[in-house]
Amino acid sequence: MHDRDASLGRDLLAWLDEAARHSLPGPGVTRLFCSAEHRAVLELIAGWMREAGLEPHLDASGNLVGSCPRAAAGERTLILGSHQDTVVEGGKYDGMLGVALPLMALKTLREQGVELPYGILVVAFGDEEGTRFQSTLIGSRALAGTFQAESLDATDADGMTLGEALRDFGGDPEAIPALARDPERVLGFCEVHIEQGPVLEQRDHAVGVVTALTGIERHRVTLTGKAGHAGTTPMPGRCDALVGAAEMVAAVDRVLNATDNLVGVVGKLDVRPNAVNVIPAETTFTLELRSPSAEVRRAGRAQLLDAFAEIAETRGLSLDIEQTYSAEAVDCADWMIEALEAASEECGQPAERLFSGAGHDGLAMRDLTDIGMLFVRCRDGLSHHPDEAITAADADAATRVLMAFLRGLAKRD
């Protein structure tokens, strides 16, 4: 960006700094679905939508949707957007960049007097991370027509169901099925997102064009043993649920390190009764597996579940495994890849193709329409962390690429 002052990028980062203030106390950004922080940030995003010429409204699933007059009239519409929610102590840009950047692009096009000959929706999806309810892609599944009503029964740490939280927030669980869009009236879905990896930084490129999104599955594993006094119960014969879980976590690490194209994590662990002098009676942990190959992921899962069963039997523990989430890998549409590449070239930005190792709302939106994705370089490839960072120059470049993409789409037959 040597020939520009990156003013759009600086304005965009200022927007994102303001959004980051709507967070629970502590490092980074923590903003959960249907929380007070979620409500507050939507007021801010609604203002951005109005500046971009869109009319905002909260839909039944907790999405904030900004629509232009053409979209409201039922004309064929391009959907843009990303998610507002974060992981605990996350960063400013994961998700929110893809909400703010298209609004900055549309605002700028509006100021330039450019009128797009198709409808536009920009969506701030309510729940992509699944941090609060462990049930992700609620909003994007609603638009895609694949929402599953049983998701409403998922509970948070306080025992509140997703359905209850959504009603309190102003949503309407019973009306979610009616949110499904007509595929014939949708041009496609395009999301801008930080890369969450090191490839663009290694290539010294501001942006990259995504070819596919990884497949993801999540499981909740519960081991039940027997509590007892830690000082008076002999070591032989103990049914310690935490020791069994520790062996399983180690097995996960071994299998993942020995399997190409498979990654995963045990990211959450709960122990009951969680007392300093009591043998753990129950331990629950989460298992997440990711791979672009469904076959690799399924084989890894089978290997791990067999290992878990053997450990549980050896330790005298009962084992319960519940799959809480599954999404298969999806490809981005060739025409969308090519259009984003052409827009990047028009803006003087090299934009090689790369694969997304993270899941996004596109996993659900692919059931509705063609999807495309533009990655933006992030410092050290860091994401889901308070130190998440992008530069004003890269933010500016990505905004201009999206503007060129939107103009180029107007020329398509």
TrEMBL record:
Pfam families: M20_dimer, Peptidase_M20. Zn(2+) 1 binds at H83, D94, H193. The keyword Transmembrane helix does not apply. Keywords: Hydrolase, Manganese, Metal-binding, Zinc. Allantoate binds at R218, N277, R290. Its cofactor is Mn(2+); Zn(2+). GO terms for molecular function: hydrolase activity, acting on carbon-nitrogen (but not peptide) bonds, in linear amidines; metal ion binding. Zn(2+) 2 binds at D94, E129, H384. InterPro entries: Amidase_Cbmase, Bact_exopeptidase_dim_dom, Peptidase_M20, Peptidase_M20_dimer. Binds 2 Zn(2+) ions per subunit. Homodimer. PANTHER family: ALLANTOATE DEIMINASE-RELATED. Belongs to the peptidase M20 family. This is M20 family metallo-hydrolase. It comes from Halomonas eurihalina.
